[in-house]
Amino acid sequence: MKTLLLLGSLAMFLAVALGAFGAHALRKKLTEDTMKVYQTGIQYHLAHALGLLLLGVIAENADHSSQVVLAGWFLLAGIVLFSGSLYALSLTGIRKLGIITPFGGIAFLTGWVILMFAFA
Fold first, then answer.
1. H helices within the chain, ranges in order?
2. Where do runs of H (alpha helix) occur along 62-96?
3. Cα–Cα nearest to 4, from 66, 81, 84
4. Measuring CA to CA, which residue among 12, 44, 10, 40 is closest to residue 112?
5. CA distance 65 to 56
């Protein structure tokens, strides 16, 4: 439970820091298309970092807290794989990194489905 809150806080910090970095340092260095890719990474990073914080709070009171924690690990994996691959793709221009992105999306979806079944 506390681990999810710690990881969620760290993920939020990184999302804000990377968002600011993108808005200021990368604005003139990235093309419009690669900036959109980077911003998509930021959006999903922020949303799922908030999800991690929410799961940390939910896990404190849930009957199925182990499932809630498992869902959190999938959200974290999604942030790393989905957002991380989009950051790397936009910064390096290596299009093959996009192969990783769907695995992050699957991790996000899996985390939310696990949470759904925890309360079904």
1. 2-24, 32-61, 65-78, 84-92, 101-118
2. 65-78, 84-92
3. 66
4. 44
5. 9
Rounded to two decimals, the pTM is 0.94
Assigned token pair, 69: 């924690």
Place of tokens 């192969």: 99
| C-beta contacts of 17-26 below 8 A and 24+ residues apart | 18/42, 18/45, 18/87, 19/46, 26/90, 26/91
Low-confidence ranges of the chain (pLDDT < 50): none
Distances (CA, A) of 111 to 80, 88, 103, 117: 14, 23, 12, 10
Domain residue ranges of the chain, discontinuous segments joined by + = 2-118
pLDDT (0 to 100) of residue 36: 96
